[in-house]
Amino acid sequence: MSPDFIEVRGARQHNLKNINLKIPKNQFVVFTGLSGSGKSSLAFDTIYAEGLRRYVESLSSYASQFLGLMAKPDCDSNDG
Asked: Is the dihedral of CA 11, 12, 13, 14 positive or negative?
């Protein structure tokens, strides 16, 4: 059974500086903050990139050759 949250540890993508957080699953989550605080870096460059990378790795090698592989996000771990 998968955990009830997505846990990001040590995110250092773009302007994120060693961020640790737990995001609950199956709930509406909003990232707010000042301009340049790393909201998009967290949402797209860290969480989305890791999810897409795991999805593409689960496909057959024939199918994944057409999608390409994104670079692994710069973080210590991404679980959930």
From this structure: positive
Q: Do the Cβ atoms of 25 and 5 come closer than 8 Å?
A: yes
The SS3 of residue 58 is helix
- Which candidate, 50, 29, 48, places its Cα nearest to that of 40? 48
Distance of alpha carbon 54 from alpha carbon 41, whole angstroms: 18
- Closest among 55, 41, 54 to 21, alpha carbons compared: 41
Q: Which residue has the tokens 């679980």?
A: 79
pTM of the model: 0.78
pLDDT at 29: 92
- Residues whose CB is less than 8 angstroms from the CB of residue 53 and which lie 6 or more positions away in sequence, other chains included: 69, 70, 72
- Taking only the tens place, the pLDDT of each residue in 43-73 is 888 889 888 888 888 988 888 888 877 778 8
